[in-house]
């Protein structure tokens, strides 16, 4: 009896990456040596070792799943990435291109000539081609489109006509359709003739002769019911459906809530036009949370960690520029009180405490609210109740922590009144932070913007300028 | 012919929430009126309206999927939440409890007596009971365990013995197992006798008489192959498998990479002990990204947005206290230079610019790196290369933006040397931000801590104290 060997998938991802990096390093070490010893008699031996290393690397890569290779490509700096990319067998190029992130895909496609791109994309489905098309050279896309049959060409065109965040851009066309007036036995025989079913086929789509969706037949029901029964008796006639122009974000939430694996997409006339599958939705959920984190920190988009310095600059400049302006405003607020600071220099040392705690507290509030909005737990209707709660939390934090820091200020500078001003300013700035932490994302959402967009930069701007103004203002009023 | 009515799932979530809130408001309005008019002849009429509103709300709730009710419960403040919870039909309590977030679940269970909890959990599977058990009153858990048969009791115990982030805690036990030496025809007949298949059954598990996993039979293959064939001829003998003590995070990544729907969990002897399904993995992916965002902002855990003020304070105090200390340190750094500020008060106005831009830039770097580490794209091995890149970005940003702000400083205060000090300080602080933005998460990861933990608070602390020190130090050296 042969021992079954199981594929050990998880926990070895970092290991695999390390192996590839190790082989790459050996390869480069040898290359360096070979360069230095050119013409030398050792060169031939080194070249042999060099070739052995590359062969071993190639063997390693051939064993890996396309998704794992994609992962490794994403984790490698550009030079190493292209070395690995060239070693990957040409017939796997397409699968890998579909798996990598946009930023990395761009770098890989830039390294391929038209001929290679055409070869890699030859066997792709219409939905996969549509995914890739925006990043391919224009003439390659034309050539690809010409090679498709009319139905597929229409599908690619239709998929491309939707926005990235619409259901239509994410659906595929690998639907198994059946009629409602046949028996399950007939369905079973039909499936056997197909030889293979598309991935994620947990239900068959029941359509009439015009292609109008009548219901779905879950494979589970097909398996447990008497083969004599008709499809119409067994099918679910009220499946969750989607429309191509719907928001993909909502679709992903529906998949999550109703534990869907696949779902039909129908047009406004009820005609079946495609299907959504859980794998696309999982990718979308992952992407959404990424975008949210990055946007809050003021990063424009997913950044390939080994992107060139120039690309990184481009990704980060916009919000840094905004931050420069807000910092300048904060600086001018302080400038208004230069006279007070000259008289009491302790103010300069204490003012960043007021601003800093306010910024931290405001970031906590805004993070929580952006999160709740992303999960649709919070509309714009609960504002006042939420505001009351956040203000209460801020008031208590302000009195307690402000009190502590007020005592510290007294101990440092021996002035009770300075301590009281400190406590008062902390409390007011925390209240401002709570107010802005609620109002900024709510307002952005109300005017139809992404509530996460630069949230962190904006709240910090408010609590900095506000904190300086409150503290220096109170000090000027009561201490001088 | 009857028109098929389709369930329109997405895009109506906010609508449904709004409808429930509306009905609740009407209900409360009437209740208020009734209170005010007690003893009055109108009271009876109002009571009728009141009852009608509640009945309508109940009807609305009965139509909703448990996941949707869970969502609505999460989005409601405590009082309204409990009103809705009491209207939900008792037999759906269990399903809903399994869907809500931990924080909300706690508030719902606190509102139920032991009898209600027992009724709600009566029909649960072992894995669902294990999910709920930690939050139930101790005596209820005992009673529940006593009502289980030996196998289920053992399963609950086993599931509870794993950490929350281990595969063993997330697996379920609804596996359909078959033998390898039977024909597909026999399998099909066996399935029909089962009457119903567990959710997410995309493959059957092939085991020997000792329960050792020999392979899996994808339902797809069962459907398209000749029924005469034997299971052993058709099954996949190298499926992706998991072990109960593996990290659930890695399992979720494997599900994502290999587009899995279900996968077997086997113990170290190769015996099938449970199964993982994509729905649990999707929840995990969602949770992970949430935890990451919250941790970066210094929030301990998921916070029910309508949690009491006291709970919110508890969730946020720890990092605020840390922030208080770091702010105090920054204040003392400034304190060291009070003499310089007294001589040149412009320093007080300009220093927050240096600190602020550094904080923003450091947050961008740390966010990107925490993100890449969470996605396993970055080990601790790439540190030096990444550091070089981030330092290059910081240098350019420092010279460019620092130059701009240096010119502004000159225009404001008419001192070229002040402008140059400003530019130099900005550049140095951005370099510090880049260094710390890379080193903080890398170091946390190397010592086995969560790299996201309070990342934002820590980087800001570094760039504040560092920025003040660099700027005031340079100014003291060169300007005074």
Automatic annotation (TrEMBL), chains A, B:
Gene3D superfamilies: CBS-domain (3.10.580.10), MgtE N-terminal domain-like (1.25.60.10), SLC41 divalent cation transporters, integral membrane domain (1.10.357.20). Its main location: membrane. Residues 235-291 form the CBS domain. One of its GO terms (cellular component) is plasma membrane. GO terms for molecular function: magnesium ion transmembrane transporter activity; metal ion binding. The keyword Cell membrane applies. Coiled coil: none annotated. Homodimer. PANTHER family: MAGNESIUM TRANSPORTER MGTE. This is Magnesium transporter MgtE.
């Amino acid at each position: 009896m042969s021992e079954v060997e199981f594929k050990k998938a998880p926990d070895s991802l970092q290991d695999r990456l390390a192996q590839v990096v190790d082989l790459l390093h050996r390869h480069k070490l040898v290359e360096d040596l070979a360069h230095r010893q050119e013409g030398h008699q050792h060169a031939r031996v080194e070249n042999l070792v060099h070739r052995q290393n590359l062969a071993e690397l190639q063997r390693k890569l051939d064993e890996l799943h396309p998704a794992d290779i994609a992962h490794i490509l994403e984790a490698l700096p550009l030079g190493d990435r292209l070395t690995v990319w060239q070693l990957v067998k040409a017939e796997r190029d397409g699968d890998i291109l579909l798996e990598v992130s946009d930023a990395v895909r761009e770098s890989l496609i830039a390294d391929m000539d038209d001929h290679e791109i055409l070869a890699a994309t030859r066997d792709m489905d219409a939905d996969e081609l549509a995914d890739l098309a925006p990043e391919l050279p224009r003439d390659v896309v034309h050539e690809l489109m010409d090679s498709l049959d009319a139905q597929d060409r229409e599908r690619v065109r239709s998929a491309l006509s939707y926005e990235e965040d619409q259901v239509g851009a994410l659906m595929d066309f690998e639907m198994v359709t059946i009629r409602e007036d046949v028996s399950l036995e007939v369905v079973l025989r039909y499936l056997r003739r197909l030889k293979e079913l598309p991935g994620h086929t947990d239900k068959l789509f029941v359509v009439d002769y015009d292609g109008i969706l009548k219901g779905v037949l879950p494979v589970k029901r097909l398996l447990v019911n008497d083969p004599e029964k008709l499809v119409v008796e067994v099918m679910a006639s009220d499946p969750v459906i989607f429309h191509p122009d719907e928001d993909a974000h909502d679709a992903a939430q529906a998949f999550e809530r109703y534990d869907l694996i696949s779902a039909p997409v129908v047009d406004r006339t009820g005609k079946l036009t495609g299907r959504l599958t859980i794998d696309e939705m999982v990718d979308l959920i992952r992407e959404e949370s990424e975008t949210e984190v990055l946007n809050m920190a003021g990063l424009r988009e997913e950044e390939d960690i080994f992107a060139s310095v120039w690309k990184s600059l481009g990704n980060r400049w916009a919000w840094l520029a905004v931050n420069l302006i807000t910092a300048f405003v904060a600086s001018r607020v302080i400038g208004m009180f230069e006279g007070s600071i000259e008289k009491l220099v302790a103010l300069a040392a204490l003012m960043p405490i007021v601003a800093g705690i306010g910024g931290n507290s405001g970031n906590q509030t805004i993070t929580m609210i952006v999160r709740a909005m992303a999960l649709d737990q919070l509309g714009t209707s609960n504002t006042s109740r939420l505001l009351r709660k956040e203000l209460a939390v801020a008031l208590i934090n302000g009195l307690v922590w402000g009190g502590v820091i007020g005592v510290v200020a007294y101990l440092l500078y021996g002035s009770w009144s300075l301590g009281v001003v400190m406590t008062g300013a902390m409390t007011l700035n925390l209240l401002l932070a709570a107010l802005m932490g609620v109002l900024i994302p709510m307002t952005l959402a109300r005017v139809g913007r992404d509530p996460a967009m630069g949230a962190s930069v904006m709240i910090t701007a408010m609590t900095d300028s506000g904190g300086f103004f409150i503290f220096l203002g109170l000090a000027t009023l009561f201490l001088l």
